[in-house]
Write a structure and sequence with these properties.
The complex is a heterodimer of chains A (62) and B (432).
Chain A: E1 5-11, E2 15-21, E3 27-30, H1 37-43, E4 60-61
Chain B: H1 11-25, E1 37-40, E2 48-51, E3 65-68, E4 72-75, E5 83-86, E6 94-97, E7 121-122, E8 135-138, E9 142-149, E10 164-171, E11 179-187, E12 196-205, E13 211-219, E14 230-238, E15 244-251, E16 267-276, H2 281-284, E17 293-303, H3 317-325, E18 328-331, E19 339-343, E20 348-354, E21 364-367, E22 373-376, E23 380-391, E24 398-405, E25 414-419, E26 426-429
Antiparallel strand pairs in B: 1-2, 3-4, 5-6, 7-9, 8-11, 9-10, 10-17, 11-16, 12-15, 12-17, 13-14, 13-16, 18-26, 19-20, 19-25, 20-24, 21-26, 22-23, 22-25, 23-24
The chains are: A mainly beta (62), B mainly beta (432).
Chain lengths: 62, 432
């Protein structure tokens, strides 16, 4: 499976957010908010933070 | 008959006279038969007769209730989880019926009514299908999660027609590392903590008698130093090829000695395992790898030790959709603009999307593809990037985001976010 690609986006007015390009071609913008599960998965991709675990999708940071 | 002042001259004769008088007076007490009781025949002293009682208890079985029609009557105990209601149309004025109260089922969209993602099938582990129901399909083997529709009249519960059910298909499963489970969760790890609960669902298999292992998981959230993930194996149930309801009762572990996250309170998860290599023996009761097709419907998790009648979490269609949209919502508009915004410079436009109800947390914004959208103002510009700013989690709030195009915008001017075609999909996710 193609791994998602992460990219941190900075904006002078709006601060930082996390962009994730998904395996199906869709694109996500993830708020860097600890309560957001996608951000948690980015921070700790091996943990079973959410049901289900996604073992085969480790985060690739660039 | 001698009196109290009579001179006793012949005691045996007097006693004989007395005895005969008593015998005559009490004559009506004679006779009768086993089980009969004395009944007064008039107000006159000693006016009795023996009668067979008509008011014997009608109760025969454990749980029977003593009721009344025109005579004493028995009301047989209802089925597990049913409640007693008044009903003037019945002979006793009472009737047992299923408990259809809303709010008892903590599982949202347990009847799979909502499929906001409009998914048909997926092989992507971790993907959500029906609202609030993701799955996991990892390790060796082939597996999929698909949406199925009931033919009218074939839903497993009489009187509760439902449009959809979920199907998990497995093949070539590996005895060591395969993992396939169908999942859902209840927000906040405090849910049901320390409480006796019952998990129920309908299921069937395509062939044979495979098993489903029921597991609950406590996830303690984020922020601070939350306790570690706590999976608890509950039980296995054995399916057949016909729809049947299965239930297991378990006490959710107490939170004593645990620490809940300070930012989010985690969740209580439910995993229905259909295939599990030996890696997962402790979590599944050594379920093992299974190749089959598993169908599920009507998932319920409630307090108490019996499975009561199925009901959705909110009891209404609109309530259930609102509950689902706390975690996910999407906008698909082929022809109309989605929201208007303001250009902040020649490349960026900010938008404030009104939210009909708050989401669990600031959501992840996902678009089908950047090129599926345009910013339309004085000119049409294809979007090269969507970026979340935040918001969306408080009552009455808006979700803020901005888009980026190559160039050509005028700062301070208004622009509209416009879909470029039928594939354009704008999704917000605040799933657990």
């Amino acid at each position: 499976m193609t791994q998602p690609i992460y990219e941190i986006i900075e904006h002078e007015l709006f601060g930082r957010s996390l962009r994730r390009t998904n395996a199906d071609g869709s694109v996500s913008s993830i708020p860097m908010d600890e309560a957001n599960s996608d951000y948690q998965r980015y921070l700790n991709p091996e943990a079973e933070q959410s049901t289900p675990i996604v073992k085969d999708e480790p985060a690739a940071k660039k | 008959m001698p009196t109290s002042t009579s001179l006793v001259t012949n005691l045996p004769a007097d006693f004989n006279t007395f005895g005969q008088a008593v015998d005559t007076s009490m004559a009506q007490l004679k006779g009768g038969t086993t089980g009969q009781v004395l009944s007064k025949t008039s107000a006159t002293d000693m006016a009795f007769t023996w009668v067979t009682p008509t008011d014997q208890t009608p109760l025969t079985t454990k749980g029977d209730l003593f009721t009344f029609t025109t005579v004493d009557a028995r009301l047989a105990v209802g089925n597990n989880g049913e409640t007693l209601v008044a009903d003037s149309s019945t002979s006793t004025g009472l009737r047992y019926q299923g408990n259809f109260a809303a709010g008892k089922n903590k599982i949202i969209n347990g009847n799979f009514y909502f499929n906001q993602r409009q998914f048909t099938t997926t092989t992507t582990s971790g993907a959500y299908g029906f609202d609030r129901f993701p799955w996991s399909g990892s390790g060796s083997g082939t597996q999929s999660y698909s949406a199925q529709t009931f033919t009218a009249g074939t839903a497993p519960v009489a009187g509760y027609e439902s449009p959809n059910f979920a199907r998990i298909t497995t093949s070539s499963q590996n005895a060591t590392d395969s993992r396939v489970d169908f999942d859902t969760s209840i927000e906040d790890v405090r849910s049901f903590a320390g409480e006796t609960t019952t998990i129920s669902f309908w299921a069937k298999a395509a062939s044979g008698t495979p098993k489903v292992a029921v597991e609950i998981v406590q996830v303690f959230g984020s922020g601070g130093s939350p306790s570690a993930f706590n999976p608890v194996y509950v039980a296995q149930v054995t399916l057949s090829t016909s729809w049947a309801r299965y239930s297991v009762t378990t006490t959710v572990p107490s939170l004593s000695g645990k620490t809940v996250g300070t930012t989010t309170p985690g969740y209580l998860g439910l995993n229905l395992w259909v295939s599990a290599g030996s890696t997962y023996n402790s979590r599944t009761g050594s379920l093992g790898a299974q190749n089959n097709t598993f169908d599920f419907w009507g998932v319920q998790w409630e307090a108490g030790s019996v499975a009561t009648a199925f009901q959705t979490a909110t009891g209404t269609i609109q309530g259930e959709l609102a509950a689902c949209q706390r975690y996910y919502r999407q906008i698909k508009s082929q022809y109309g603009y989605i929201v208007s915004g303001t250009n902040t410079n020649t490349t960026d436009t900010t938008f404030a999307l009104p939210m009909p109800s708050p989401m669990r947390t600031a959501p992840t914004l996902t678009v089908s593809a950047n090129s599926d959208f345009q910013v339309i103002g004085a000119t049409n510009q294809t979007i090269t990037g969507f970026n979340s700013i935040g918001g969306g989690k408080n009552a009455g709030c808006v979700f803020d985001f901005y888009t980026t195009v190559g160039s050509g915008l005028t700062a301070g001017y208004s622009s509209m976010l416009y879909p470029s075609g039928a594939n354009a999909n704008f999704m917000l996710s605040a799933e657990l």
